[in-house]
Amino acid sequence: RGRSVEEYRTQFAGLLERAIGFAQGRRERVLVLSIPDWGATPYARGLARDTQQVAHEIDAFNAVALQACLRRGVVYVDITEVSRRHGGEAQMLVDDGLHPSSLMYAAWTRLALPAVQAIP
Fold it and tell me: Cβ(5)–Cβ(64) under 8 Å?
């Protein structure tokens, strides 16, 4: 969306604090998923986007989120690598070639499930 990492840092911190508030301050009950890499999709290729640049930007935003989670004791689950590995597979996306299908969501769920099951 063309926003800066610094703007994201501020906004993400606010959203994370809000989520912690919704969890009545129980940080261990908050789970954050990384940003999937839409640059790996046919949609991005159709736009002739520089997929390496998209990946670099997503990594920067994910690094901000990870650090914010670590500072606050919030669980962070990396789903980005799965989106990169399977983002070009038609069955992992809906017909628009951008948004995840139920199969992609299932893959992300398998990654997040152990963290969710460990929540007291």
Answer: yes
Query: Tokens standing for 120?
Result: 């007291």
Cβ contact 4:64 at 8 Å: no
The b-or-e profile of 7-21 (16+ CB within 10 A means b, else e) is ebbeebbeebeebbe
How far apart (Å, rounded) are the C-alpha atoms in residues 82 and 36? 8
Q: What is the DSSP letter of 34?
A: P
In whole angstroms, what is the distance from residue 119 CA to residue 98 CA? 31
Q: How far apart are CA 97 and CA 94, in angstroms?
A: 6
Q: pLDDT tens digits for 24-57?
A: 999 999 999 999 999 999 998 888 889 999 999 9
In sequence order, what are the residues at sequence separation of 6 or more whose Cβ sits closer than 8 angstroms to the Cβ of residue 117? none
